[in-house]
């Protein structure tokens, strides 16, 4: 099964033929449907491109399941500790976080590559679910970068000390790089800040 999300301005009659349903997302309204691979026709995508409608197609294994929290509690036992800040949590205060965010995985790219590299075929796999406090979960949002490193290695007791040292070295490197870029033109500086915003954090 594949899922198709489309972003038109309003509902059109032809959308009913494909079973599109209205959904409220983080950034507004969109329409979604599920189709088997044999029912997905090129004419649909041609029609969407012709109308100038943005769309996204992905396998249903990259979609957030309704029972991922239950799956997490079946496999992970207490005590619960936030993977990012080491705060102790109860079952009630714990937020189950997708280490590689669902939004990143829906778009074929780095997120999906990380999961496949780890041998994970589903975004709701228990290896991609980590305990988190509400504050860290909100801060992390759809980021990878340093958040992924903290989430991946935060289960080890030695990690907070090593992470502090890594951050000191990392910021020292950034400071040296900024100093170098300030001396060597705006193109390199712009490229560096683009990478900083979109890849590292």
Question: SSE layout and pairings?
Answer:
Blueprint: E1 2-6, E2 21-25, E3 28-35, H1 42-51, E4 55-59, H2 68-75, E5 80-81, E6 88-89, E7 95-98, H3 102-106, H4 110-117, E8 129-132, H5 134-140, H6 145-153, H7 159-183, H8 186-200
Antiparallel strand pairs: 1-3, 1-4, 2-3, 5-6, 7-8
Distance between the termini: 33 Å
Number of distinct helices: 8
CATH architecture of the largest domain: Orthogonal Bundle
- Give the overall form: globular
At the first level of CATH, the class of the largest domain is: Mainly Alpha
Number of strands: 8
Mean pLDDT: 81
Spans of at least 5 consecutive residues with low confidence: none
Task: Supply the number of structural domains.
Answer: 3
Strand line-up of the largest beta sheet: 2-3-1-4
CATH T-level fold name of the largest domain? DNA Binding (I), subunit A
Beta-strand share of residues: 15-25%
The secondary structure category is: alpha+beta
Task: Give the SSE order as H and E letters.
Answer: EEEHEHEEEHHEHHHH
Largest pleated sheet: 4 strands, antiparallel
- Helical content band: 40-55%
Cα Rg: 21 Å
């Amino acid at each position: 099964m594949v899922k198709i999300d489309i972003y038109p301005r309003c509902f059109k009659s032809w959308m009913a033929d494909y079973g599109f349903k209205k959904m409220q997302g983080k950034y507004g309204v969109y329409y979604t449907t599920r189709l088997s691979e044999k029912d997905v026709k090129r004419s649909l995508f041609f029609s969407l491109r012709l109308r100038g409608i943005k769309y996204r197609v992905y396998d249903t294994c990259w979609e957030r399941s309704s029972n991922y929290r239950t799956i997490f509690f079946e496999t992970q036992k207490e005590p619960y500790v936030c993977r990012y800040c080491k705060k102790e949590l109860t079952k009630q205060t714990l937020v189950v976080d997708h280490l590689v965010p669902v939004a990143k995985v829906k778009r074929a790219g780095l997120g999906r590559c990380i999961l496949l590299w780890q041998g994970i075929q589903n975004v709701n796999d228990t290896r991609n679910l980590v305990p988190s406090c509400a504050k860290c979960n909100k801060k992390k949002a759809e980021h990878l970068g340093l958040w992924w490193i903290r989430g991946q290695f935060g289960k080890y007791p030695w990690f907070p000390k090593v992470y502090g040292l890594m951050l000191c070295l990392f910021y020292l490197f950034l400071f040296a790089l900024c100093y170098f870029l300030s001396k060597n033109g705006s193109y390199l500086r712009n490229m560096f800040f683009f990478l900083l915003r979109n890849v590292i954090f």
